[in-house]
Design a protein that fits this description.
The complex is a heterodimer of chains A (about 500) and B (about 400). Chain A has about 500 residues and is of the alpha+beta class. In chain A, about 35% of the residues lie in helices and about 20% in strands. Chain A has helices spanning about 10-15, 15-25, 35-40, 65-75, 130-135, 155-160, 170, 205-210, 245-255, 270-280, 300-315, 325-335, 340-345, 360-375, 400-420, 440, 445-460, 470-480, 485-490, and strands at about 30-35, 55-60, 80-85, 100-105, 110-115, 120-125, 140, 180-185, 190-195, 220-225, 225-230, 235-240, 260-265, 290-295, 320, 350, 380-385, 390-395. In chain A, a hairpin with a 5-residue loop joins strand 8 and strand 9 (about 190-195). Classes of the chains: A alpha+beta (about 500), B alpha+beta (about 400). Chain B: Keywords: FAD, Flavoprotein.
Chain lengths: ~500, ~400
């Protein structure tokens, strides 16, 4: 563990581990319990592997009723709970706590219904993202959000972080594609939200729960929107001698009234690594490469690609190639989708997730380059350009604790830059433990207080996934020590307002 | 504590003034009726507070970046102004908000953008592009404590903290008073085509609509009108048919829209597609749908019902055995505008009883004051959701200052 700190664990709970496990086994005999150290070790990290912590115990329930019984027990016994799907969080959202029970939904992986007339699927939360599309594809339908980890990540996890993906420019993110949820509140109550219709009565709790990082309820089932697959889709590759030209081209395509299904951006280091890894046929002599994909019938695709080429011509692309076949398209996407893995073969990397207004793209890339040079790291940029969601991958050595500390500061400076440019900390990965201390960069005390009040309304004792999302220094830490909100409001001395974008000294 | 706050109409010009006003209401325990320009004031229970706060003096568009598909608007800005500015750049609000105000006697586009978001009112295109709330990227608001809060931002993707902006959409001013909303906007399509079938039964029509929605042609409107409703449209082919009308819309670049309309006609051959409207006539037709022109000429109660598309025809069928129902099914059958006879309860008991069997919910959109006061205008909530609702209300407005009783009597 490097610079991330946690509240002191509840030693009394840890001391009662054996007793707690025994009681849980009695309570939910069908659920899988993991209490031995070796078994718990499997769950000590999520995909933000720099951090790890052995949990109190792990339970894998098989039904909503079991989840309900487990949460009611934990609530009554004041035991913290960390929900987990496939553990692919990139922000430490599923990082265990020493005194917390991990409730892992990966056994709940039934596709309950595919209803093509109403264009919805009902699935258990442990179903993988790709499994929905697999189940619906025989009727020609698909589930739109497609995070890079889609073969592994679960729907429950997608809902917790409001996952996006390469195709969300056109189809929206998870929140735009979820119609109903079955969830369990910390006190064990089972609540059904929405259903197979397009809006909910009364307050809309779906967007509140979606993206709440497992802090308000544990989702056990979801009803999601299915879409008919397009007649066809095809990407075009556009290479440019400068990132500015590429960024301006993206803006011009959108201004031209075209919303491609995806616009992906890669800079020179990313292109080279991916090409070396996959031989996708990317040009190696360009500074920036766009993969622009459009959908429709053959004629529609030709029409759109022609229009995009026309628009791109103003920005003097040094490379332009339409995919001519399904195989070629698959190879182009294989390169992009392999990017994180390819870079991971070369080096450890720290993946950022800031978002900026599109018009600030050239400035942002320029500044990110400067920041990384200052911290003496190489960086590869690969991201969803259409929506301004940046993913700089900072290359470092995770086994070097000095580098780990330095890379965190470097990342922090990049995220502060995103906010200063009018953007936000995280577009699709979530806050987790990784970015919680930066929340005050984006939000005021009142903004955070309002979120905290919502948290407390649904989980008054802060037992569900605590220590995440909210700054630990400040309110959350005080809450951990048992201070009530009304007492908090009388305490005015803690005003952590770090000076914006000033930057750190490099250790 | 007793009130010293000045009663009557308040229209603060800035967020600070508004925050100050709400804080004063909190101090004096004065309930506030919250509105924009009041075009939807007759929906919901009458609030009956002596103090009204309006956002109508907070007008303007601080940010509009067409190439970023983003508009940030002050919530008092009239819809007409927002849409005119978007149209200058060939863009639009993708969710095509229903202009409820016209139903209640107000001018077109008089509603404020804040009111549109606060009521999450989405039109026919919702079925393709999502609801108003789906396009909320961020907001600024004053909560029931008189504090200025914000959530989200102005960028396309944002998962930084809880999504309070989208949560406020559809809360009818009962959680916080929004002062600014950041919305995702999209290019408007140049060509619109509408494929029309006549004389289908409700059940067959919904089946046809679901087939159309299950094609890859990106259908942006799936509507079925009872004959009694269809005859109120301006289009002579539609009004004069003397039959139920089923309408399916596609929007795209010209060649695409034409190709898709033709493909749809092939896919729906069994349902006898008999008419295709061109862009101009399509715009006129869907414009009337959007303003609910077909319900403007009668004073009868009007309900908005959400249900599962495949259950819709049966739901209306069962209800029709109890009362005369004139229905316009939108969203491929998933949302039904239902005109009911002028019963004392507007048909509430029978509608809600029937809904209990089929799933879904109903909101009374238009009725006499006496009717609205006497029944649940919004769908009564299941106990677990009612409990969450009360908790959320308390988290934003602990003293119940904002629009008390508007949605639910005890809240």
């Amino acid at each position: 563990m490097s610079t991330v700190t946690f509240p002191d664990p509840d030693r009394a709970v840890i001391a009662r581990r054996n007793d707690i496990v025994k009681q849980l086994k009695r309570l939910v005999p069908e659920a899988v319990m993991i209490a031995d150290e070796e078994g718990r070790r499997t769950f000590e990290s999520d995909a933000l592997t720099a951090y790890h912590c052995l949990p109190l115990a792990v339970v894998l329930p098989g039904t909503t009723e079991e989840v309900s019984a487990i949460l009611r027990f934990c609530n009554e016994n004041h035991i913290k709970v960390v929900p987990r799907g496939a553990g692919t969080s990139l922000c430490g959202g599923a990082l265990p706590l020493e005194d917390a029970l991990v409730v892992c939904l990966s056994r709940m992986r039934k596709v309950l219904a595919i209803d093509t007339a109403n264009r919805v699927a009902r699935v258990e939360a442990g179903v993988t993202n790709i499994a929905i599309t697999e189940a619906a594809s025989k009727d020609g339908f698909f589930y739109a959000p497609d995070p890079s980890s889609q073969i592994a990540c679960t729907v429950g996890g997608n809902i917790a972080t409001n996952s996006g993906g390469a195709h969300c420019l056109k189809y929206g993110v998870t929140v735009n594609n979820v119609l109903g949820l079955r969830m369990v509140m910390m006190d064990g109550e089972i609540v059904d939200l929405g259903g197979t219709y397009l809006d909910a009565p009364g307050y809309d709790f779906l967007p509140l729960i979606t993206g709440s990082e497992g802090q308000l309820a544990i989702v056990t089932e979801a009803t999601v929107r299915l879409l008919k697959a397009p007649e066809g889709s095809r990407p075009i590759l556009l290479g440019f001698d400068s990132t500015e030209a590429a960024a301006s081209c993206v803006a011009a395509i959108i201004a031209g009234g075209i919303i491609p299904v995806a616009i992906e951006f890669m800079d020179r280091p990313a292109i080279h690594v991916c090409e070396h890894f996959v031989s996708a046929g990317y040009p190696l002599d360009v500074e920036a490469l766009l993969i622009v994909e459009v959908e429709g019938s053959q004629d529609e695709i030709e029409y759109l690609l022609e229009k995009i080429e026309d628009i791109a011509r103003d920005f003097l692309p040094s490379y332009s190639r339409r995919s001519m076949s399904a195989e070629e398209s698959a190879l182009i996407w294989k390169g992009r989708k392999a990017a994180f893995g390819a870079i991971g073969q070369l080096s450890d990397y720290y993946c950022m997730d800031g978002v900026i207004p599109l018009s600030k793209l050239p400035k942002a890339l320029d500044e990110i380059g400067w920041i990384c040079r200052k911290y003496r790291f190489d960086v590869a940029n690969i991201f969803h350009a259409g929506d301004g969601n940046l993913h700089p991958l900072i290359l470092y050595n995770a086994n070097d604790s000095v580098q780990l500390e330095r890379v965190e500061l470097c990342g922090e400076e990049i995220l502060k830059l995103c906010i200063a440019l009018g953007g936000c900390l995280t577009g699709e990965h979530g806050v987790g433990i990784e970015k919680r201390e930066l929340m005050y960069e984006q939000y005021t005390d009142e903004d955070i207080d309002q979120q905290v009040r919502v948290k407390e309304a649904l989980d008054p004792a802060w037992l569900l996934n605590p220590g995440k999302v909210f700054p630990i220094e400040g309110r959350d830490a005080r809450k951990m020590r048992g201070l009530e909100l009304h007492q908090l409001e009388e305490l005015q001395e803690f005003e952590p307002q770090p000076e914006l974008a000033e930057g750190h000294d490099v250790p | 504590m007793t009130g010293h706050m000045r009663l009557g109409f308040h229209a603060p010009e800035t967020e600070e003034e508004l925050a100050h006003l709400v804080a004063e209401a909190v101090d004096t325990r004065t309930p506030l009726e919250v509105m924009g320009r009041g075009t939807k004031r007759e929906i919901g229970h009458p609030v009956g507070s002596g103090a009204v706060v309006s956002t109508e003096a907070m007008v303007g568009v601080p940010v509009y970046e067409p190439t970023e598909l983003v508009m940030v608007a002050k919530t008092g800005t009239p819809l007409a102004q927002i849409e005119a500015q978007l149209a200058e750049n060939d863009q639009e609000l993708p969710f095509e908000p229903v202009d409820l105000g016209q139903l209640l006697g107000y001018a077109p586009g008089e509603a404020t953008i804040g009111g549109v978001v606060a009521t999450n009112i989405s039109g026919s295109r919702r079925i393709l592009k999502g609801a108003a709330r789906d396009h909320v990227l961020g907001m600024r608001a004053v909560n029931g404590r008189g504090e200025v809060i914000k959530s989200g931002g102005r960028v396309m993707k944002n998962v930084t903290g809880y999504d309070l902006g989208r949560t406020l959409a559809g809360s009818w001013g009962t959680l916080a008073i929004m002062t600014e909303v950041a919305l995702k906007v999209l290019p408007a399509h140049r060509e619109v085509r509408t494929v029309i079938c006549f004389g289908l039964t409700d059940q067959t029509a919904i089946e046809a609509l679901c087939i159309a929605m299950g094609t890859p042609y990106e259908v942006s409107g799936g509507l079925h009108l009872h004959a009694a409703i269809a005859e109120r449209f301006s289009n002579e082919d539609i009004a004069g048919a003397g039959a139920a009308v089923t309408a399916i819309r596609v929007e795209n670049a010209p060649a695409s829209a034409r190709y898709r309309a033709n493909s749809l006609k092939q896919a729906l051959l069994a349902y006898g597609p008999a008419l295709e409207l061109d862009t101009e006539r399509s715009r006129a037709f869907w414009g009337e749908v959007r303003s609910l022109k077909m319900f403007q000429s009668t004073p009868n109660p009007l309900w908005r019902v959400s249900t599962t598309p495949s259950a819709a025809a049966k739901l209306v069928g069962n209800l029709s055995r109890k009362m005369r129902v004139n229905a316009a099914y939108d969203w491929s059958g998933g949302m039904i505008w239902m005109e009911t006879p002028a019963l004392t309860d507007g048909g509430a008991v029978d509608i809600r009883r029937t809904l209990a069997e089929f799933g879904g919910h109903a909101t009374l959109i238009r009725a006499e004051n006496a009717t609205r006061s006497g029944i649940d205008v919004f769908q009564p909530l299941d106990p677990p959701i009612a409990s969450l609702t009360a908790k959320l209300k308390h988290a934003f407005d602990p003293l119940g200052i904002l629009n008390p009783g508007r949605m639910y009597r005890d809240m």
